[in-house]
């Protein structure tokens, strides 16, 4: 970075060094990469990636520094959906407490309820239904 490396380069999957470091839970590197870009978009990308990697403490720090609890990846998946995909119920509850939308849909229509039910988070899925989650929502199967 000090020698001028482009921290925004993407691999063939569209992932950046920031995405990789946050998903791996590398807190100091993640924050250093965020500081090089110094914008909220990078913080939000890191939040979703940290959720995908199951790194709750990193996600909490990102939220405290201003990341949006409803940040999405390029497919429209939220950090909350990513944490449910990992069957991390405590992480899900923390994101909800921080304002994550329990009724958000991905670009293909996938909902948190769908992810929770298919991932075995039965009590969490029941709680979502009690809070008004759409049990009739449909996603697009490709």
In short:
GO terms for molecular function: ubiquitin-protein transferase activity. With about 140 residues, the protein is an all-alpha fold.
- Helical fraction equals 40-55%
CATH class: Mainly Alpha
Total count of strands: 0
SS summary, helix count? 8
Task: Give the name of the CATH architecture.
Answer: Alpha Horseshoe
- Structural class comes to mainly alpha
The tally of structural domains comes to: 1
What proportion strand? under 5%
Rg value: 15 Å
Write up what this structure looks like.
This protein has helices at residues 17-23, 27-37, 40-53, 56-64, 79-85, 89-97, 112-118, 122-130. The chain has 142 residues and is mainly α. The chain has a single domain (17-130), classed as Alpha Horseshoe (Serine Threonine Protein Phosphatase 5, Tetratricopeptide repeat). The longest helix is centred in the first third of the chain and has 14 residues, at 40-53. It is elongated. It starts with 16 loop residues before the first helix and ends in a 12-residue tail after the last helix. The mean pLDDT is 90. Keywords: ANK repeat, Repeat. One of its GO terms (molecular function) is ubiquitin-protein transferase activity. ANK repeats lie at residues 42-74, 75-107, 108-140.
């Amino acid at each position: 970075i000090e020698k001028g490396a482009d921290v925004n380069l993407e691999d063939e999957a569209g992932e950046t060094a920031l995405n990789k470091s946050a998903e791996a839970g590398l807190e100091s590197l993640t924050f250093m990469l965020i500081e090089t870009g110094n914008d909220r978009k990078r913080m939000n990308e890191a939040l979703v990636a940290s959720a995908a990697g199951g790194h709750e403490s990193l996600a909490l720090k990102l939220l405290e520094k201003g990341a949006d609890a409803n940040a999405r990846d390029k497919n429209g998946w939220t950090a909350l959906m990513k944490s449910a995909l990992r069957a991390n119920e405590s992480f899900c509850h923390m994101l909800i407490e921080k304002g994550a939308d329990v009724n958000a849909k991905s670009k293909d229509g996938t909902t948190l309820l769908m992810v929770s039910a298919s991932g075995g988070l039965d009590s969490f899925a029941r709680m979502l239904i009690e809070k008004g989650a759409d049990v009739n929502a449909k996603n697009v199967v490709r």
